[in-house]
Design goal:
By secondary structure, this protein is of the alpha+beta class. The protein contains 16 helices and 5 strands. It has helices at about 10-20, 20-35, 45-65, 75-85, 90-115, 120-165, 175-180, 205-215, 260-275, 285, 290-295, 295-305, 315-330, 335-340, 345-360, 365-385; strands at about 190-200, 225, 230-235, 245-255, 280. Helix 1 (about 10-20) packs across helix 5 (about 90-115), helix 5 (about 90-115) packs antiparallel against helix 6 and helix 14 (about 335-340) crosses helix 15 (about 345-360).
Amino acid sequence: MTPSAAPMSIVLIAEQMTSNCEMIAQRSAQRVAREIPTYSRIPFDEILAQAKINVGRGVQVLLSQQAPGPDEKMSDILVARDRFREGLPMEDMLRGYRISLGDIRDEFIACAERMGLDADLIVHGTVLLWELTDSATVQLSTAYREMSVEKALHDEFDRIDFLRRLLFGNASTEELHSLSRLYRLSTEGRYYAVRGRPGNGASLQTLIRQLEKSGFTSNSHGIVGVIDGDVAGLTAVRPTLDNLDAIIGVGPRVALHNAEHSFRRATRILDVANYFGSPGVFTLEDLSWRIGVVELPEVTETLVRRYIEPLNKLDEFGPVLKDTVREYLASGQRLGATAQKLIIHINTLRYRLERYQDIVGADLSSTNTVMEVLWALQAQQSAEI
């Protein structure tokens, strides 16, 4: 829409409003400062300066007979950024603009009535000033939302950066005291370091929410986020999964300044648990000797070569013997329970166990041998997953 020339009567009103700019701006600036408590943090000179700009903008709209279009950027965006950084709520800033632009409309109507302006021209001028208000509030609201998103992203970046430094032992003592308060952590509290990976059908955000739900309490918070593709952090209590498909390694409960030690343990436990492929929440006590299956590959290879590989030469009977021994050891070496589980006669079970011992040269009555066979079977089973 091309701006059109304003009627002479509108021009006269615009000139009068320009002459009264200081008075109009003072009145609206005082109202804003008086009626909106949060504006107390803004210097009055700044409020007054913006009010004067608003009067000038109202005059320009009347003279051009056209309100700003949706794509026409207004200088208020810069002011909005300042107000945002000063912590002024969006609704209060918009209310301040409405007060200022409302006073400008009232002044226009008062001037028009004193001059005996035609009612249609008064309505037209009022509509233009309303459109100015709408355009300003839309742009300011958009700018505030964009800045809110930017701030949220920046805050999340800072939070994850602190979490990373905390878990990797790079947070200074000063940071521990200042930022722990910001994130509702206690330097006197004790926390479990956790590191987890979601399985099929779960996401990182779902796992984060589960850790926050089960690992935080009303009196003791924590902090979790995405670190190097995993969900990691500190929880006040040992978390649970509630049927969520995920694997979580949990380190020992430590003071905040020892988070690195606990996180290293949680990482090791996650890697081992992930190797075995079973979902759940695991501590060192839960995995015990199984950690060696992953972290001592030379020992694992030796035991697999001794207790598993000879069975590979037996064709179909090899897997049968392997499954039989696995079930026998899992049942605590109880013949009756094993035979019942495998649905075979107990003499058949005895025969299979004897054949296994003969083939691999093992004595399943020896505790050391039982541990070695369990080790080998666990490694073989994990390799088949």
